[in-house]
Amino acid sequence: MNILKNLFLLFFIFSILIVSCNPNKLINNELKLFAARNYINWFSTMEVTILADDFVNSGKLLDRPNATWWPLVMLTFLGPKAGSNRVQCLIYKVPYINVENSINKYGVLKVVEITPDDNCKNHFSAKEVTSVSGIKNLRIYLTGESKKMGSGKRTIPSFTMGVSLNRYENNTWSETKWIYFPLMNAEAKSLKSAKQKKSKKLSYVKKRYHSSIVKRKNPGVLYFPLKDYLEGPAEISSELLGTIDDSYPDKTSIQCHKVDGNCQTIGDYICDRCRYGWYEVVGSACSKVKNKYCGPNKCGQRGWPACPRGYQYSRYIVTAGCYAGNQSGFCQENLSTYCDENKVLVCL
Amino acid sequence: MSKDKIRFRDLLGFFVLFIFAASILLLARQYIILKNQEGLLAKKKTLELLLEASNKLKKLWHEGDSKNVWKNGLVKFDVYLGTPETTDDSYLRCNPHFLELYFSQYKAFGKRQDAHFVIYSKKYRYLVFAKPVWFDRAVDGRSKRHYKIVTKSNSSRAIIPNYAVYVELYLPHNKEVTLPVLLEDSCHDVYLPQRVYGVGPYKLGGKKKDWTWDNFGRDIYIDKYLVTYRDIAEWIEYSNDLENQQLHELLPSTIEQFPRPATNLTVAQMRQFCAFKGKHLLEAHIFDAASFYPFDIDEPKALNVLRGPYPWTVRRKKFYLARPKKGEKNKLQKESVEISKICSKVYAKECFKEYKLKNFYTDSVTWTGIFQVMGGNFEYLRNPINSKNNLKASSHHFSYLNDWHQLGVRAFWDGLGHGVNNFHFQNGDTPSGQHQLGVGFRCMRFVAK
Description:
Chain A is mainly β. Chain A has helices spanning 2-19, 24-28, 30-42; strands spanning 45-50, 69-77, 86-93, 96-97, 103-105, 107-114, 127-143, 147-149, 154-156, 160-169, 172-173, 177-182, 191-193, 221-223, 255-259, 265-266, 278-281, 291-294, 307-308, 329-330, 337-339, 345-347. Helices cover 10% and strands 31% of the residues of chain A.
């Protein structure tokens, strides 16, 4: 009986000890885990849209209005299969600071996942990926070139998102912590701001002796997500366009880029989806940007579009547009230029 | 009374057991969470190491045999790379066969080269390897290669470049986590600067006779070298087009020929090869633009495009390759010229005996950085201005004294076969004593802003 009593007492004390086991280690790891999870997801990011233009790269604190949620950045990165790109939003809840300037409710940094056609403004209904609380003095930096930024002029590496913050740990505020997220697949033109829909930056170096590799964090190298496996011989999928036999005279060529007279793109630019390259055609009213079609190029031959000759090779003005005899395109001997039903200069 | 006491004791016992069991479950849950978290942190650390290894992989890909290991004969030779005696080491840059040679014989490339890539981090040494990912059908169909070729034509993702080499990196102690990397070709093409260009030899009479064009607003990249048999072998292996499987007869039978320009394709096959890489056949006026040295290089909009007959100078002196005899302006003095100086610029007929030409030679280069422009092999150039002038005739078939050795002077090839009857050398000499004439080619690509 006494043994039983003692056993019960032992079990009880042991249970109390276990229950009271305070997982401080888990709480203190929260920031590390937040950084690790996002590092692994975001390293294959292809496109970044800065949603809080006045905050990101400014060095300013986002501290008003109190206790509100702010979408900061939207990142698109590769999923495991074709057509399965993932989109996540980085959201920040501003700390609540009372009249005496002491913080009552700390800030929260949260990452949610949305569908590719959704919006970060709908983050309340989106699935949360990870978050970290107890934050204040958040600053975010993101640039396509290595730059010294912030009040301390810290060097932010190129194509890397730098996050600086203070965190409430062990009943005190920590020193400023920095977390870096390399965005290995992002190009200069894929770093966009929400205000400016299309980036004007160049992804290629267009100088003598330079090759055609794209400027990235590691130029000429693309990364796929961890444990991702490319498919073997491909089936024809909707993501890539065209076949090797596509022919403009046979009307099987796919137009991948269309511009209006003001050089604005109509629809989407999809020439990066052409399976066998693309070529330009002459005929649009815009002289700087030309319409484009997927497939092998046979310009200048009968029935095919005229080859571009340019608009600045002559002392006389060469007018853009589609009309017979347009000198901005040329054909083989014994052929002349005509305007077809697609407003493309063709050779007949 | 004792019964009540017993019931209370039972209840207390059950309660304690319940608390104990719940505590065990809680402890187990926390243990699992901690393990998952440790796993996540370890995965991040692994990724950081693999990313650093990918920097070394890219350096190896871009620089090739920078340690001269292959050049000094310290490794077994690969069929597709030729030998250092016959092939320039620039051929090994951005060459997947050189990558494979490195992965299979990495220990020869350094004293402490215990792995494909050795990474140092916080006083620890990590060994990173490339994973075998592709069955080498060319060897025995069973052994695996450490890379595979990925193109838009054989895959289904828009982000994949037109041509790239796929490699997977991993750490031996964490094999489940592999990092797939795509290496783009950063070595073999060059940009054509935007300016006004002329076509063919400069025509006296100024602008009225000279045909000019410009590429402002267009971005064109041109292959530096002619397409080789190694490239053709790769195309045959990785193309999804089933018809190409019958093209093995195009490949050479001897080892030494793989680094050489591929000269036995028809125009249709050339076009298909370029399309496989998302490129187009090089056009004659673009070739001229990349070859003729601009007289006024600092003025891209100069409308009078003066140019000389040779790619290495603006001088329009015709008889650069040999001096005329005294008093006889039209008779060139063969003996007065050092053949080796000629052959490094123009690999002509006389050069076979006097000068050993390496595959992928880089002796003669144009102002834009393309090679193999004069002498050497015939080259097909699609000519949308004059379809009868589509063959660069300056080649090893003609003496260096021959007028074919000038830029912009072209013959005709029908593109269907390689017999002498498929060619027409208008207004000039024809190759003698040959039944089959090989024709090389190269590609170009357009890039959008």
